[in-house]
Amino acid sequence: MKYERLGEQGNFIMENPDLVSGLYFPLANEAGVMSSVSPDLSGDSKMDQNSFLLPPVSCENLHNDRSSRNIWCRINGKELWSLTGRSAWQQAKKFSRYKEPVVLEAGFMHHKITRISEENGLRAEISSVVPATGETVELMKIQIENISSEYKNLQMITAIPMYARSADNIRDHRHVTALLHRIKTTDNGVMVIPTMTFDERGHKRNHRSYGVFGGNETQKPMGYYPVLGDFIGEGGNLETPRALWESCLNVKSANYETGGYEALGGLCFPECRVAPQETITYVVAMGYGKSEEDLMENCCGFLSETAFDRCWEKTKEYWKEKVNISVQTGNSEFNHWMKWVSFQPMLRRIYGCSFLPHHDYGKGGRGWRDLWQDCLALLMMNPEGVRQMLLDNFGGVRFDGTNATIIGSGQGEFIADRNNITRVWMDHGVWPFLTTELYIHQTGDLGILLEEKSYFKDMQASRGEEKDSQWSENEGEALKKISSQIYSGTILEHLLIQNLTSFYDVGEHNHIRIRGADWNDALDLASERGESVAFTTMYASNLEGIANLLIELNKQGVDSFELSEEIFVLLGQSVLIYNDIAKKTEILADYCRKCIHQISGEKVAISGEKLQEDLRGKAAWIYNHIRETEWVTSKEGHGWYNGYYDNSGNKVEGETETGIRMMLTSQVFPLMSQTATDLQVKEIVKSANAYLYRREIGGYRLNTDFHEVKMDLGRMFGFAYGHKENGAVFSHMAVMFGNALYRRNASREGYGALISLFDHCNDFEKSKIYPGIPEYIDANGRGVYHYLTGAASWYLVTVITQMFGIRGYYGNLAFLPQLLNEQFDEEKQASASMEFAGRHLKIRYKNERQLEPDIYQVSKITIDGVPYKPQNQEQMIRREDIISLSEQQLHTIEVTLN
Question: Quick check: pTM over 0.85?
Answer without folding.
Answer: yes
